[in-house]
Amino acid sequence: MSSPSAVFVPKQEAPPLGKYLASTEKKTRDKAIKSLATFLSDDSQKSMTPSERAKLWKGLFYCFWMSDKPFVQQDLSSELANLVLVIPSLESAIGFVHGFWEAMVREWAGIDRYRINKYYMLIRRFVNATFRLLLKHDWNSEACDAINEILQGAGGPLCPDDKTVPASISYHLADIYLEELDKALEADDNNCGTPLITLLKPFIHLSARTSNKITFGRMQTALFTPLLDALATRVTIPSADTTNSPRRKRKRSSETYPNLVESVCEPNTQAGSTSLAINPQDVTKEVLKAIFDVAGHMDTKDANRRKMYALWKDRMEEIEGTPEGDEVN
């Protein structure tokens, strides 16, 4: 009888079958991944159908499931994420990212506590690879919108209306999102303005519409507060009455998201532009404006609206003060 590795014959006309990707033999899995990389990098290939994509990601999910040693897990998570960048077509690459998130949401409930951390690592790698994909295409606006729709649309990890989506995925995304964006920017040499407001939209959307108090709180503490604090370290706060001011004192550190803070572009800047809004105070105001605007939407939960307005008011007062009697209801 032939060995498992001898049975597998890579085919260029179709992605590797799931049974090879999820084989108990590491050599077979490794060959399947290499075959997949070759298949995906062929620009003559047609885009996969949703059904083909789901089958492929079923196999990839269990390919990663079978990896048991830490170094193997680290290497494989990077190898799988980097597949995003070998796909010549931007549309197909986004489709591959879509398949990843579909698989994560679909299979998450079956991940045991012994494997959960390695899947958190895989998510981190894919978030980073997605940012690198968007950077590769100079933050193409349609691509950014497509990624946002994957994240916040029906069945997406940041969808506020789908009760079947595990909250822990959205928490992890909030924890790592800006960190991985900053890492991707550090490795990029294009000096292309970062559309921060666009990238934050799924999180603002979730904050506005979630019915879960814990989810709302996690978005604030893990993402918005660290971001606004990082921007505040670069903002000169008015010195009047500083002795008696109740404003929070923050640890002033230029180490938090330095690449992001220095690369943010104006919200309406054309994709690929090198024109940057280098004034952190302006960036802060744009972030707060985005939060304020979404807070006013009809479908924003009342409790969340009040908190979002309070955040806007508090932070604006820290920057420039609010005229006496000027309140947001």
What would you note in describing this structure?
The protein is mostly helical and 329 residues long. The protein folds into 2 domains: 7-135; 137-234 and 255-321, no CATH class. The chain is 61% helix and 0% strand. The chain contains 14 helices and no strands. Helix 3 packs parallel to helix 5 (70-86), helix 9 packs parallel to helix 11 (213-232) and helix 13 (280-295) packs antiparallel against helix 14. The longest helix has 21 residues, at 116-136. Keywords: Nucleus, rRNA processing. One of its GO terms (biological process) is rRNA processing. One of its GO terms (cellular component) is preribosome, small subunit precursor. Pfam families: Nop52 (PF05997).
Reconstruct the topology from this structure.
Blueprint: H1 4-7, H2 18-21, H3 26-41, H4 50-65, H5 70-86, H6 90-107, H7 116-136, H8 141-152, H9 167-186, H10 196-209, H11 213-232, H12 258-261, H13 280-295, H14 302-320
Helix pairs in contact: 3-5, 4-6, 5-7, 6-8, 7-9, 8-10, 9-11, 10-11, 10-13, 13-14
